[in-house]
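User: I'm putting together notes for a lab meeting next week and I want to include a structural view of one of the chains we've been expressing. I don't have a solved structure, so I'd like a prediction I can at least talk through. The sequence is below, exactly as it appears in our construct file.
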Amino acid sequence: MSKLEIINWLLFALAVAAALTVYISHGRIDGIIHPPRKGVVAYTPDQYKLAYETIDFATADGVRLRGWFLPAAGGESGRTIIFCHGWGSNRGELLRDTHFLAEHGFNLFYFDFRASGESKGTVSSVGYLETRDFDAAYDFLKTNRPMAVEAVGVFGTSMGGSVAIYSAAKYPELVCLLAENTFFSYKRVVANWSWRRLNIPYFPLVALTLFFVRRKLKADPEPYSPCFSVAGVKMPVLFINGDSDDLVPAADAEALFGLCPSEKKRMWVIAGASHAHCAEVGGEVYRNKVTEFFLENLREPAPAAVKAAK
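Assistant: Thanks for the context. Below is the predicted structure for the 310-residue chain, given as C-alpha coordinates.
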Protein backbone atom coordinates (compact mmCIF):
# COMPACT_ATOMS: atom_id res chain seq x y z
CA MET A 1 0.00 0.00 0.00
CA SER A 2 1.41 3.38 -1.02
CA LYS A 3 1.86 6.30 1.39
CA LEU A 4 -0.96 8.15 -0.36
CA GLU A 5 -3.34 5.23 0.14
CA ILE A 6 -2.38 5.00 3.83
CA ILE A 7 -3.03 8.73 4.26
CA ASN A 8 -6.39 8.41 2.52
CA TRP A 9 -7.40 5.51 4.78
CA LEU A 10 -6.32 7.46 7.86
CA LEU A 11 -8.35 10.47 6.74
CA PHE A 12 -11.32 8.22 6.09
CA ALA A 13 -11.00 6.63 9.54
CA LEU A 14 -10.79 10.07 11.16
CA ALA A 15 -13.87 11.22 9.27
CA VAL A 16 -15.81 8.13 10.38
CA ALA A 17 -14.68 8.65 14.00
CA ALA A 18 -15.72 12.31 13.86
CA ALA A 19 -19.11 11.46 12.38
CA LEU A 20 -19.64 8.76 15.02
CA THR A 21 -18.69 11.21 17.79
CA VAL A 22 -21.22 13.76 16.51
CA TYR A 23 -23.90 11.07 16.20
CA ILE A 24 -23.36 9.74 19.74
CA SER A 25 -23.14 13.23 21.26
CA HIS A 26 -26.30 14.40 19.52
CA GLY A 27 -28.09 11.26 20.66
CA ARG A 28 -27.18 12.01 24.29
CA ILE A 29 -29.29 15.19 24.22
CA ASP A 30 -32.49 13.21 24.84
CA GLY A 31 -30.96 11.70 27.94
CA ILE A 32 -30.47 15.19 29.39
CA ILE A 33 -33.41 17.32 28.28
CA HIS A 34 -36.03 14.55 28.30
CA PRO A 35 -35.95 12.99 31.77
CA PRO A 36 -37.58 9.62 32.44
CA ARG A 37 -40.97 11.24 33.01
CA LYS A 38 -42.58 9.98 36.18
CA GLY A 39 -46.14 10.88 35.29
CA VAL A 40 -47.57 8.57 37.91
CA VAL A 41 -47.27 10.35 41.25
CA ALA A 42 -47.11 7.30 43.48
CA TYR A 43 -47.05 9.11 46.83
CA THR A 44 -49.84 11.50 47.78
CA PRO A 45 -50.87 13.39 50.95
CA ASP A 46 -53.82 10.98 51.34
CA GLN A 47 -51.39 8.20 52.17
CA TYR A 48 -50.06 10.24 55.10
CA LYS A 49 -53.52 11.42 56.19
CA LEU A 50 -52.66 15.04 55.37
CA ALA A 51 -55.14 17.68 54.23
CA TYR A 52 -54.24 19.26 50.88
CA GLU A 53 -55.45 21.15 47.86
CA THR A 54 -54.39 20.36 44.29
CA ILE A 55 -53.05 23.46 42.57
CA ASP A 56 -52.68 24.30 38.87
CA PHE A 57 -50.78 27.36 37.68
CA ALA A 58 -48.84 28.58 34.64
CA THR A 59 -45.28 29.80 34.15
CA ALA A 60 -44.37 33.04 32.39
CA ASP A 61 -43.62 31.04 29.23
CA GLY A 62 -46.99 29.29 29.31
CA VAL A 63 -46.22 25.86 30.80
CA ARG A 64 -48.98 24.47 33.05
CA LEU A 65 -47.67 23.07 36.33
CA ARG A 66 -49.41 21.05 39.01
CA GLY A 67 -48.78 20.92 42.74
CA TRP A 68 -50.20 20.53 46.25
CA PHE A 69 -50.70 23.07 48.99
CA LEU A 70 -50.80 21.42 52.41
CA PRO A 71 -52.07 23.81 55.10
CA ALA A 72 -50.38 23.64 58.48
CA ALA A 73 -51.90 21.14 60.86
CA GLY A 74 -53.69 22.79 63.76
CA GLY A 75 -54.57 26.11 62.15
CA GLU A 76 -53.47 28.95 59.91
CA SER A 77 -49.74 29.57 59.61
CA GLY A 78 -47.65 32.27 57.95
CA ARG A 79 -44.76 29.82 57.56
CA THR A 80 -44.45 27.92 54.28
CA ILE A 81 -41.80 25.61 52.83
CA ILE A 82 -41.56 25.39 49.02
CA PHE A 83 -40.18 22.05 47.81
CA CYS A 84 -38.14 21.55 44.60
CA HIS A 85 -37.64 17.94 43.46
CA GLY A 86 -34.78 16.48 41.45
CA TRP A 87 -34.34 15.59 37.78
CA GLY A 88 -36.34 12.54 36.73
CA SER A 89 -38.38 12.70 39.94
CA ASN A 90 -41.66 14.33 40.98
CA ARG A 91 -43.41 15.99 43.90
CA GLY A 92 -44.67 12.69 45.29
CA GLU A 93 -41.19 11.30 45.84
CA LEU A 94 -40.16 14.46 47.70
CA LEU A 95 -43.36 14.29 49.77
CA ARG A 96 -42.44 10.72 50.72
CA ASP A 97 -39.12 11.95 52.13
CA THR A 98 -40.32 15.15 53.82
CA HIS A 99 -44.00 14.73 54.82
CA PHE A 100 -42.96 14.63 58.50
CA LEU A 101 -42.54 18.42 58.38
CA ALA A 102 -46.34 18.73 58.26
CA GLU A 103 -46.40 17.82 61.96
CA HIS A 104 -44.55 20.99 62.97
CA GLY A 105 -46.85 23.86 62.01
CA PHE A 106 -45.57 24.61 58.49
CA ASN A 107 -47.60 24.94 55.30
CA LEU A 108 -46.00 22.71 52.65
CA PHE A 109 -46.07 23.52 48.93
CA TYR A 110 -44.96 20.84 46.48
CA PHE A 111 -45.06 21.14 42.70
CA ASP A 112 -43.83 19.22 39.67
CA PHE A 113 -41.27 20.94 37.48
CA ARG A 114 -41.99 21.06 33.75
CA ALA A 115 -41.67 17.72 31.95
CA SER A 116 -42.00 15.94 35.30
CA GLY A 117 -44.82 14.31 37.23
CA GLU A 118 -48.23 15.71 36.25
CA SER A 119 -46.95 19.02 34.90
CA LYS A 120 -46.97 19.85 31.21
CA GLY A 121 -43.95 20.59 29.06
CA THR A 122 -41.57 18.29 27.25
CA VAL A 123 -38.12 19.75 27.92
CA SER A 124 -36.07 19.77 31.09
CA SER A 125 -32.96 21.92 31.31
CA VAL A 126 -31.64 20.56 34.64
CA GLY A 127 -32.11 23.93 36.30
CA TYR A 128 -32.26 26.78 33.81
CA LEU A 129 -35.91 26.63 32.65
CA GLU A 130 -36.93 25.30 36.05
CA THR A 131 -36.11 28.66 37.66
CA ARG A 132 -39.18 29.95 35.80
CA ASP A 133 -41.20 27.20 37.42
CA PHE A 134 -40.11 28.33 40.88
CA ASP A 135 -40.95 31.93 39.99
CA ALA A 136 -44.47 30.82 39.03
CA ALA A 137 -44.91 28.74 42.20
CA TYR A 138 -43.76 31.56 44.46
CA ASP A 139 -45.91 34.08 42.60
CA PHE A 140 -48.93 31.78 42.95
CA LEU A 141 -48.47 31.70 46.71
CA LYS A 142 -47.99 35.45 47.01
CA THR A 143 -51.11 36.11 44.94
CA ASN A 144 -53.42 33.38 46.22
CA ARG A 145 -52.10 32.57 49.72
CA PRO A 146 -50.69 35.92 50.94
CA MET A 147 -51.17 35.02 54.61
CA ALA A 148 -49.03 31.92 54.10
CA VAL A 149 -45.93 33.68 52.79
CA GLU A 150 -44.99 35.87 55.73
CA ALA A 151 -42.00 33.57 56.24
CA VAL A 152 -40.94 31.23 53.42
CA GLY A 153 -38.23 28.60 53.39
CA VAL A 154 -37.06 26.49 50.45
CA PHE A 155 -36.08 22.83 50.29
CA GLY A 156 -34.39 21.64 47.10
CA THR A 157 -32.72 18.38 46.16
CA SER A 158 -30.32 17.77 43.25
CA MET A 159 -31.67 19.81 40.29
CA GLY A 160 -34.21 21.25 42.73
CA GLY A 161 -31.32 22.29 44.97
CA SER A 162 -29.82 24.18 42.06
CA VAL A 163 -33.14 25.98 41.49
CA ALA A 164 -33.51 26.64 45.23
CA ILE A 165 -30.07 28.26 45.47
CA TYR A 166 -30.71 30.42 42.41
CA SER A 167 -34.08 31.47 43.83
CA ALA A 168 -32.68 32.18 47.30
CA ALA A 169 -30.22 34.60 45.71
CA LYS A 170 -32.97 36.15 43.56
CA TYR A 171 -35.47 36.57 46.41
CA PRO A 172 -33.57 37.82 49.49
CA GLU A 173 -36.82 37.92 51.48
CA LEU A 174 -36.79 34.13 51.64
CA VAL A 175 -35.94 33.12 55.19
CA CYS A 176 -33.87 29.92 54.92
CA LEU A 177 -32.66 27.27 52.49
CA LEU A 178 -31.98 23.53 52.64
CA ALA A 179 -29.96 22.27 49.67
CA GLU A 180 -29.56 18.50 49.38
CA ASN A 181 -27.38 16.61 46.86
CA THR A 182 -26.89 19.92 45.03
CA PHE A 183 -24.36 19.86 42.21
CA PHE A 184 -21.56 22.41 41.89
CA SER A 185 -22.15 23.28 38.25
CA TYR A 186 -24.18 22.16 35.26
CA LYS A 187 -21.09 21.12 33.30
CA ARG A 188 -19.67 19.17 36.19
CA VAL A 189 -22.80 17.20 36.97
CA VAL A 190 -23.28 16.29 33.29
CA ALA A 191 -19.64 15.21 33.15
CA ASN A 192 -20.04 13.13 36.34
CA TRP A 193 -23.24 11.57 35.05
CA SER A 194 -21.64 10.73 31.70
CA TRP A 195 -18.42 9.31 33.08
CA ARG A 196 -19.62 7.63 36.28
CA ARG A 197 -22.94 6.27 34.98
CA LEU A 198 -22.23 5.77 31.25
CA ASN A 199 -18.41 5.53 31.06
CA ILE A 200 -18.32 8.35 28.50
CA PRO A 201 -15.29 10.69 28.63
CA TYR A 202 -15.85 14.45 28.84
CA PHE A 203 -13.79 15.20 25.74
CA PRO A 204 -14.89 15.07 23.03
CA LEU A 205 -18.28 13.41 23.61
CA VAL A 206 -19.68 15.32 26.61
CA ALA A 207 -18.30 18.65 25.43
CA LEU A 208 -20.02 18.14 22.09
CA THR A 209 -23.25 17.00 23.76
CA LEU A 210 -23.30 20.22 25.82
CA PHE A 211 -22.86 22.18 22.61
CA PHE A 212 -25.95 20.50 21.13
CA VAL A 213 -27.89 21.08 24.39
CA ARG A 214 -27.15 24.82 24.16
CA ARG A 215 -28.32 24.82 20.55
CA LYS A 216 -31.53 22.98 21.49
CA LEU A 217 -32.34 25.23 24.46
CA LYS A 218 -31.20 28.38 22.65
CA ALA A 219 -29.45 29.29 25.90
CA ASP A 220 -26.52 28.23 28.06
CA PRO A 221 -27.65 26.65 31.37
CA GLU A 222 -24.18 26.99 32.92
CA PRO A 223 -24.62 30.59 34.28
CA TYR A 224 -27.58 29.30 36.32
CA SER A 225 -25.30 26.85 38.12
CA PRO A 226 -25.17 26.91 41.93
CA CYS A 227 -21.47 27.81 41.91
CA PHE A 228 -22.42 31.20 40.44
CA SER A 229 -25.67 31.93 42.29
CA VAL A 230 -24.64 30.73 45.76
CA ALA A 231 -22.67 33.96 46.28
CA GLY A 232 -26.02 35.73 46.70
CA VAL A 233 -27.27 33.43 49.45
CA LYS A 234 -27.06 35.25 52.78
CA MET A 235 -29.81 33.49 54.79
CA PRO A 236 -29.31 30.39 57.01
CA VAL A 237 -28.45 27.34 54.88
CA LEU A 238 -28.18 23.63 55.58
CA PHE A 239 -26.27 21.65 52.94
CA ILE A 240 -26.80 17.87 52.99
CA ASN A 241 -24.85 15.37 50.92
CA GLY A 242 -24.00 11.68 50.91
CA ASP A 243 -20.41 10.49 51.02
CA SER A 244 -21.23 7.84 48.39
CA ASP A 245 -22.81 10.27 45.91
CA ASP A 246 -21.32 9.66 42.46
CA LEU A 247 -23.07 12.62 40.79
CA VAL A 248 -22.23 15.12 43.52
CA PRO A 249 -19.01 13.90 45.16
CA ALA A 250 -18.26 15.20 48.64
CA ALA A 251 -15.50 17.43 47.23
CA ASP A 252 -18.02 19.19 44.95
CA ALA A 253 -20.47 19.64 47.83
CA GLU A 254 -17.73 21.07 50.06
CA ALA A 255 -16.59 23.44 47.30
CA LEU A 256 -20.14 24.77 46.94
CA PHE A 257 -20.43 25.11 50.72
CA GLY A 258 -17.18 27.09 50.75
CA LEU A 259 -18.51 29.60 48.21
CA CYS A 260 -21.63 30.35 50.25
CA PRO A 261 -21.19 33.65 52.17
CA SER A 262 -23.95 32.95 54.72
CA GLU A 263 -22.82 33.50 58.29
CA LYS A 264 -25.20 30.79 59.39
CA LYS A 265 -24.42 27.80 57.20
CA ARG A 266 -23.94 24.15 58.05
CA MET A 267 -22.84 21.05 56.16
CA TRP A 268 -23.97 17.54 57.00
CA VAL A 269 -22.48 14.57 55.13
CA ILE A 270 -24.41 11.32 55.56
CA ALA A 271 -22.23 8.22 55.67
CA GLY A 272 -23.23 5.60 53.11
CA ALA A 273 -25.78 7.76 51.28
CA SER A 274 -25.72 7.81 47.48
CA HIS A 275 -27.39 10.39 45.26
CA ALA A 276 -31.04 11.05 46.20
CA HIS A 277 -30.93 8.59 49.11
CA CYS A 278 -30.10 10.88 52.02
CA ALA A 279 -33.54 10.59 53.63
CA GLU A 280 -33.60 6.82 53.24
CA VAL A 281 -30.13 6.30 54.74
CA GLY A 282 -30.36 9.07 57.31
CA GLY A 283 -33.63 7.77 58.75
CA GLU A 284 -34.71 9.26 62.05
CA VAL A 285 -31.53 11.33 62.38
CA TYR A 286 -32.31 12.88 59.01
CA ARG A 287 -35.86 13.70 60.02
CA ASN A 288 -34.70 15.25 63.28
CA LYS A 289 -31.99 17.40 61.70
CA VAL A 290 -34.26 18.67 58.90
CA THR A 291 -37.04 19.46 61.37
CA GLU A 292 -34.59 21.20 63.71
CA PHE A 293 -33.29 23.38 60.90
CA PHE A 294 -36.71 24.66 59.88
CA LEU A 295 -37.97 25.08 63.46
CA GLU A 296 -34.89 27.14 64.30
CA ASN A 297 -34.90 29.32 61.20
CA LEU A 298 -38.48 29.44 59.90
CA ARG A 299 -40.26 31.01 62.85
CA GLU A 300 -43.87 32.16 62.97
CA PRO A 301 -43.91 35.92 62.21
CA ALA A 302 -44.88 38.22 65.07
CA PRO A 303 -48.46 39.59 64.95
CA ALA A 304 -48.79 43.03 63.37
CA ALA A 305 -49.68 44.64 66.74
CA VAL A 306 -46.50 43.25 68.33
CA LYS A 307 -44.38 44.44 65.39
CA ALA A 308 -45.89 47.94 65.65
CA ALA A 309 -45.20 48.09 69.40
CA LYS A 310 -41.58 47.32 68.80
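A couple of points you could mention at the meeting. The first strand starts at residue 53 and ends at 58. DSSP finds eleven helices and eight strands in the chain.

User: Perfect, that's what I needed.
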